[in-house]
Amino acid sequence: MNALTLDQAWLTSWRDDINRALTPLLATFENTYGYPPGENRVAPAGDRPPARESTLPDMPVTLTVFYRTIHEVLLPDIGNGYFVHPLDHVLNELTEQGPVSLPESTQGVVFGSDGGGILYAIRHDGTIYRSQVASSDVDFDPLATDLTDFLDQLRQATMRFIATGQPGWL
């Protein structure tokens, strides 16, 4: 799926699927795991486009489309935890640290992480990469063909954890 088909309707459906699935998990989480859950949700973008959206000339198009619909993903209690950072965080990191080096002498934008500090980066063509360790100064491996593939993998990892308690690998 490309930027032309990754649209608000698809993203809204993806967000609602995950939020709906989280409701019963969170209701029984403390009894099951022995501690209260953190804030687990996929937050909508709100009524206005992100304030800094006009400053995104190097941002991959699919990531821009994503942030028009979703503010952030907070899933600290799913597996090891999964996060898609808010746009302002992504832009601040990009400004302060610059893009990360990806295979084939390309660069990417870090947009998410897991609870262990593994980073997720997107290349300009939309390919998603995962850092090998918790650092932006290491090699990144391909993870998903595009943002839709990544989001589908995140949904699958979330649903697996909810159904079985087993963390997915993402």
Describe the structure.
The chain has 170 residues and is α+β, with helices and mostly antiparallel strands. It has a single domain (8-164), classed as SMI1/KNR4-like (3-Layer(aba) Sandwich), CATH 3.40.1580. Helix content is 38%, strand content 23%. The protein has 4 helices and 8 strands, in the order H-E-H-E-E-H-E-E-E-E-E-H. It has helices at residues 8-33, 61-69, 87-97, 147-164; strands spanning 41-44, 70-75, 82-84, 100-102, 106-114, 119-123, 128-131, 140-144. Strands 1, 2, 3, 4, 5, 6, 7 and 8 form an 8-stranded antiparallel beta sheet that branches. Helix 1 packs parallel to helix 4. The longest helix is centred in the first third of the chain and has 26 residues, at 8-33. The chain is globular and about 50 Å long. The protein starts with 7 loop residues before the first helix and ends in a 6-residue tail after the last helix. The mean pLDDT is 90.
